[in-house]
Amino acid sequence: MIVHRGIDSLSPLPYAVVTSGTFDGVHLGHQTILKRLNEVARAHPDGQSVVMTYWPHPRTVVSNDSQDLRLLSTLEEKIDLLEQAGVDHLVVIPFTRAFSQLSSEEFIQQVLVDRLGTKKLVIGYDHRFGRDREGGFDYIQAHQAEYGFEVEEIPRQDIEAVGISSSKIRTALNEGNIDAANRFLGRPYSLTGTIVKGRQLGRTIGFPTANLQVDDAVKLIPANGVYAVDVIQGGQTLGGMLNIGFRPTVAGEHQTIETFIFDFSKDIYGEHMTLQFRSFLRPEQKFNGLPALVEQLQKDEQQARVTLKR
């Protein structure tokens, strides 16, 4: 996949089959659109599939209530997922207030026609674009001869049959409903970051943890609690149990992301690690002293190991 950052250096492709959207999470609903995009592109001898996406997320630019918006995928994660989906070209458009003010006609002419040379546009049901989301399927269909490309809309029943949205997945993660989130995504939800030093209390009670500092502040952190996770580190995949929260039993003062990696004892401070969420085990809770905490952690470990073997 060729990644184009911005549109200024783009040249029209011989036969560009294009779709656009934020594609946060690249979930199963998005994958329905991407599958059709690639099918249309592969049906033409010169066809190439093109995804246009926007960074930062448009809501962080145009909405007054977006300060707390957290995303399912960072830009780099989204790039990786779209490449896995078989997309030929990804155009990452810097989303600014000036760009948000383009009318639908300006967007179509300046971006789809002049820069990409679009021959076919594939969009999801009720997809909107341009200033105040004024443009849509009906407008393009009525003017497709004028612009020189065709438009295809994914049928409403196909989109509604999937019944998935990024906002539904965010809600599931905020509630600790990992099973639903993973089902909607079609894969385990993940966090990636750098391993940093914590208070190192875990090693004193037999549960040393790797403390994760997530790479991007906009990435959504699931609900506080204990999870069974796959741990990808140093080219290998291990099992582990993860605690997200404030560690009330030991008077924690800020949220931490701490993973006890099973059967592992290396020093990996400063290295990168990815956590793939497999199951929610229990909410975070305060115990009456360290012995009670250790007893529960032993039960958590046993439950996590059984869960990860399934």
Automatic annotation (TrEMBL):
The keyword Transferase applies. It holds the Pfam family Flavokinase. Pathway: Cofactor biosynthesis; FAD biosynthesis; FAD from FMN: step 1/1; Cofactor biosynthesis; FMN biosynthesis; FMN from riboflavin (ATP route): step 1/1. It catalyses: riboflavin + ATP = FMN + ADP + H(+); FMN + ATP + H(+) = FAD + diphosphate. Its EC number is 2.7.1.26, 2.7.7.2. Residues 184-309 form the Riboflavin kinase domain. Keywords: ATP-binding, FAD, Flavoprotein, FMN, Kinase, Multifunctional enzyme, Nucleotide-binding, Nucleotidyltransferase, Transferase. GO terms for molecular function: FMN adenylyltransferase activity; riboflavin kinase activity. InterPro entries: FAD_synthase, Riboflavin_kinase, Riboflavin_kinase_bac, Riboflavin_kinase_bac/euk, Riboflavin_kinase_dom_sf, Rossmann-like_a/b/a_fold. It comes from the Bacteria. Catalyzes the phosphorylation of riboflavin to FMN followed by the adenylation of FMN to FAD. Belongs to the ribF family. This is Riboflavin biosynthesis protein.
